[in-house]
TrEMBL record:
<comment type="similarity">
    <text>Belongs to the peptidase S10 family.</text>
</comment>
<keyword id="KW-1015">Disulfide bond</keyword>
<feature type="region of interest" description="Disordered">
    <location>
        <begin position="44"/>
        <end position="76"/>
    </location>
</feature>
<keyword id="KW-0325">Glycoprotein</keyword>
<comment type="subunit">
    <text>Carboxypeptidase II is a dimer, where each monomer is composed of two chains linked by a disulfide bond.</text>
</comment>
<keyword id="KW-0378">Hydrolase</keyword>
<keyword id="KW-0865">Zymogen</keyword>
<feature type="signal peptide">
    <location>
        <begin position="1"/>
        <end position="26"/>
    </location>
</feature>
<dbReference type="GO" id="GO:0004185">
    <property type="term" value="F:serine-type carboxypeptidase activity"/>
</dbReference>
<keyword id="KW-0645">Protease</keyword>
<dbReference type="Pfam" id="PF00450">
    <property type="entry name" value="Peptidase_S10"/>
</dbReference>
<protein>
    <recommendedName>
        <fullName>carboxypeptidase D</fullName>
        <ecNumber>3.4.16.6</ecNumber>
    </recommendedName>
</protein>
<dbReference type="InterPro" id="IPR001563">
    <property type="entry name" value="Peptidase_S10"/>
</dbReference>
<keyword id="KW-0121">Carboxypeptidase</keyword>
<dbReference type="InterPro" id="IPR033124">
    <property type="entry name" value="Ser_caboxypep_his_AS"/>
</dbReference>
<keyword id="KW-0732">Signal</keyword>
<dbReference type="GO" id="GO:0006508">
    <property type="term" value="P:proteolysis"/>
</dbReference>
Length: 500
């Protein structure tokens, strides 16, 4: 972990608006994440230490139920999607969506979208995908802009097929969590936080498996990105703790987390280091960050208070085009990046607020869907400064843990993740080396540690890796589920489609 001197400077400069697109009024996941990091820094500076729910997970979660009532007859069939409005022809997989109640007492229900694999779905594993925020939608971002089977077209009415969707190799659930995000809801106003989010996600899974009993005992993986650097390992911790007590048969094999927020202080410092390494901030600003703060957490002089102009860049990918809004209200990209449209958030918003789409997906009528829940940061009651003790506990308990980073992201940059990984103090078993795609391209770099813990980069990707490098993300996912490192060289006959 970086020292306090570096942290205090990093938090100050991180608070400066770094750009991130020209649609200033659109609240996105990166806006929420940036604000959350800043708010948590202030909370830790001004408030008492929080109790650590995660220090002894077996004691913390042993009270949770391990069985639930069977769903009403026909619940699964009622969730079946006949067809999404505007979907392309010849869709050859089953889709479901609907609500799963996670708290009868408080009226909390989480919305899910589930897509089965087109071929041999009965033999493929189950993956639960969680977006971050905290408080942003896995349906809008994960399913519709990243790894789902469809992408929303610019007309906001039709869909196109994503050739590199993750349901090519797995059956995938997209969960809108916590309650209040997207179509999910709560009838009672209650503070949100990491612990409640993890417990509700566990209750969702328990109930969902009753609705889809053929997936009980299936190889199961949890994946996500961004603030899911908290969500994913925390849900895994609940499951592993109950498994250690012999109280659950959920067959959790591993977790797969991209560009995660793992340590707030590492992230603040690593963000600035990334910008300096990529020529966004000057040597003078970097010198002020690293040299001119005292160790008491206060700024020694005005030199620490330097600001900088990053320009209109997207901090999710500092080399990607941004979305420009013309005076007539039309949207267009500032440049061209194959397969990527920086304006897609607007298309998704239009599509998911279409009453016909909401009816087809069995969402509550007249729901105003948005990418991130309004006020999602208000009252967020618990969030560990660092997730590395939890990650270490999972590794020690035999869980397969892979963390990956798109190397063009400044929100949760690879520099910060490397500092967090170092804090695990694990012995390296396989040294950092390139990995290849079936196209004979370097897909990124990978290193493995004792216990099988794996850290990989994805070359040319930003924060949302499947959006910027869909093929490379699929190769990495396939390797993770097989439990083998991605290819060192292009082997004859290697294909990510093997067994599909």
């Amino acid at each position: 972990m970086r020292n306090n001197t570096m942290y205090c400077a990093a938090v100050l400069v991180l608070a400066i608006l770094l750009g991130g697109g020209s649609l200033a009024n659109a609240v996105t996941e990166k806006d929420v994440l940036r604000a959350f990091i800043k708010s948590r820094a202030q909370t830790r500076a001004n408030g008492p230490a929080e109790p650590d729910t995660w220090a002894d997970p077996i004691s913390s979660f042993s009270h949770l139920p391990t069985k639930c009532e069977p769903p009403p007859a026909g619940a699964r069939e009622a969730d079946r999607i006949t067809a999404l409005p505007g979907q392309p022809p010849r869709v050859n997989f089953d889709q479901y969506s609907g609500y799963v109640t996670v708290s009868e007492e408080y009226g909390r229900a989480l919305f899910y979208y589930f897509v089965e694999a087109p071929y041999e779905a009965s033999s493929k594993p189950l993956v639960l995908w969680l977006n971050g925020g905290p408080g942003c939608s896995s349906l809008g971002a994960g399913a519709m802009a990243e790894l789902g089977p469809f992408r929303v077209n610019p007309d906001g009415k039709t869909l196109s097929r994503n050739r590199h969707a993750w349901n090519n190799v797995a059956n995938v659930i997209f969960l809108e969590s916590p309650a209040g995000v997207g179509f999910s809801y709560s009838n009672t106003s209650m503070p949100s936080g990491d612990t409640r989010t993890a417990v509700d996600a566990y209750m969702f899974l328990l109930n969902w498996l009753e609705r889809f009993p053929e997936y009980k005992g299936r190889d199961f993986y949890i994946a996500g990105e961004s603030y899911s650097g908290h969500y994913v390992p925390q849900l895994a911790t609940v499951i592993v703790a109950l498994r250690e007590l012999g109280l659950t048969d959920v067959n959790l094999k591993g977790i797969f987390v991209g560009n995660p927020l793992l340590d707030s202080s590492n992230n603040a410092y690593g963000s600035l280091e990334f910008l300096w390494n990529h020529g966004v901030i000057s040597d003078e600003v970097w010198y002020n960050v690293t040299e001119r703060c005292n160790s008491g957490g206060q700024f020694e002089d005005k030199a620490c208070d330097d600001s900088f102009d990053a320009g209109d860049i997207d901090t999710y990918n500092i080399y990607a085009p941004v979305c420009i809004q013309s005076p007539d209200g039309s949207l267009h990209s500032s440049g061209y990046l194959p397969g990527y449209d920086p304006c897609i958030d607007s298309y998704i918003d239009t599509y998911l607020n279409n009453p016909t789409v909401q009816k087809a997906m069995h969402a509550r009528t007249n729901t105003e869907w948005s990418e991130c829940a309004e006020g999602s940061l208000n009252g967020w009651t618990d969030s560990p400064v660092t997730m590395m003790p939890t990650i270490g506990w999972l590794v020690d308990n035999g869980l397969r843990v892979w963390i990956y980073s798109g190397d063009m992201d400044d929100e949760c940059p690879i520099t910060a993740t490397r500092y967090a990984v170092k804090d695990l103090n694990l012995t390296i078993t396989k040294l950092w080396r390139p990995w290849y795609t079936p196209d004979n391209e370097v897909g990124g770099y990978v290193q493995q540690y004792e216990g099988g813990f794996t850290f990989a980069s994805v070359r040319g990707a930003g924060h949302m890796v499947p959006s910027f490098q869909p093929k490379r993300s699929l190769v990495l996912l396939y390797s993770f589920m097989k439990g083998v490192l991605p290819p060192r060289t292009l082997s004859p006959g290697f294909s990510v489609w093997s067994g599909v």
